[in-house]
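In the previous chapter we treated chains in isolation. Here, by contrast, the input contains two separate entities that must be folded as one system, with a combined length of 524 residues.
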Amino acid sequence: MLELEELTTDYGPVRAVDAVSLTVPAGSVTAVLGANGAGKTSLLRTICGLVRPTAGRVLLEGEEITGLAVEQIVRRGLAHVPEGRGVIGELTVAENLRLGGLWRRGAAAPIEEIYELFPRLRERQGQPASRLSGGERQMLSIGRALMARPRVLLLDEPSLGLAPLLVAQIMGLIRRLAEGLGLAVLLVEQNARGALSVAQRGIVLNLGHVVADQPAERLAADERLRHAYLGF
Amino acid sequence: MTRFIDLTLSGISDGAVYAAVALALVLIWRATRIVNFAQGAMLMVTTFIASAVITKTGSYPLGFFVALASGLILGAVVERVLIRPVESAPPLNAVIVTLGLYTLLVAGAGMIWGNTPRSFPAAFSLQGYKVGGTTLLFTPNDTFIVLVVVVVAVLLALLFRATSLGLRMRASAFAPEVARLLGVRVGGMFTLGWALAALVGAIAGVLVAPAVFLGPNSFDPVLIGGFVAAVLGGLDSPPGAVVGGIVLGLALSYVSGYEGSSLVPLAALAILVIVLMVRPSGLFSASKERRV
């Protein structure tokens, strides 16, 4: 479970995240929606420790992780799949996966488990990750995050640049992962329709603060919000 | 023909030293994207320490290992104390810091050990091998130099390719932020990169000192050779550094033998300029970009 309490982040004079509070229960997906520059990516970067918050708290399984170094937060069971997928192109597919579980030592997920989830990755295990297609990269970065058996998964725009069919597959996978592994998933998306189709809860950010926090179906049905912030 | 063999063999021996210095530069470049202009001064200091130990104890192996240990420590300390504060600053800051460190170490060594170059013992005989009545320039000590550098290169390759520590180091070098997100302690990997580089540099210093003598500025030409070799190989490729070192050693040896030794610095410069013009990413570079 992931909880945010009044989390606030400033970049110099610019307030990127403004007193955001939310709860992501285990085994569920919460979608964070909003236009470009609404603060979605800043929110994720603050949660995982890449950016220090100005105020507020982050709790992971009830324990405060605010202000810890990224490496420490990761060791508490949080995995962040960054925007643009973050695969390391110079390493092979198998090396990328192994890297994800290294800090776990013996307790990492067996690489076979990831290959069963994504058979394409098994076929390409010896190739440099730079040769992968967009969809394969997305599989690799999600699979790599799963290697560490996290409790909380942050996903930054997993649908970016993917064909509609692939988007649907990835979204379905995210839902299954959350339910199957009991993961708390915080899913940041521009593709609001896709994200709301798999999320239990939807949050809309505008200029860094929460303008809506509702069950996903209600949000998807709210025409005023859709027109004003979500563009569908 | 004997002359050609002589020049080739001594080119390989010189090249091995260039390769070791180039490896040190490449390790630091890969880890932190910094060109370490203090590399020559750092290996000068560790070689002085080795010299002091050998003079005191009379044991060459002991001096050799003390040089390695002091290299490891010096590299780690330099990264932690001097480089870490400027790591997130523009690259030029770190370059200036390494230049400052160079000046500091050279001046300090001059104050402690004096500016007059002194001799440094070789590990093995400096008498050339005798083959069928003729004496080659290649000596048992040259064999030692080449073997040591080969062993160092193989061990480094194994470290990077076959161990999880090497995987973490490569990940930190290629994508520090992603590596941190995967739980890699990137700062520690940077420190280790500098420590390993200084260790490899220390080896080069001990190997080449019998030939260039030991003084505060004795290793400057070796450092320049190492730079050219590293650029030749692509600056971020350890195999490239080794090949670059050997190619440079051979080229300079032929120039020196057939045209005269006074042309060697000019030849090194010409090779550098030609490589930068014709193939700026080097022979073996993995990435296209070059930020120097």
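The CA atoms of residues 1 and 62 of chain A lie 7 Å apart. The two ends of chain A are 30 Å apart (CA to CA). Compare these points with the single-chain example from earlier in the chapter.
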